[in-house]
Amino acid sequence: MRIALFISCLLLAACGFKPLYEAGGSSGAMQAELEAVSVGPIPDRLGQIMRNQLLERLNVAGVEKYRLDIVLEQTSEGYGVRPDAATTEELITLKAYVQLVSLKDDSILFEDTLRARTSFDIVLSDYATVTQREDSARRLALELAERIHRRLALYFSQK
Fold it and tell me: What angle is formed at CA 41 by the lines to CA 38 and CA 46, rounded to 5 degrees?
């Protein structure tokens, strides 16, 4: 068991693996860059949820050098049709179009499109269905916010 662990450590070191949040090296510089990112307003309730999550992770106390612009697009589609033509499940897709803009010259430094999906069962209670839809969309917004944070950290660690 120890030999396998030793060999795997050697293989990781040989391939150039470097942890994103390492204890000593780039994490201080990367964190300083992440703290310099301001998050622009994102429309609608899902945008507020995503923006609040990103504000907790970004621009804690930094001087703003970058602006993060995000446009959300939510789609839903029913599937799983019963014999009476009613759908039994709904698939929600949330897309985030992300741009990191330099405040110095308004140039786009980073651009990406992220997508997350989830589905839920449609039940007989309208209230339960609406609650499930809203909760699913909220979880997708939080998931995309975490993925955006990781993408920015990766961008700044490679910069």
Answer: 120
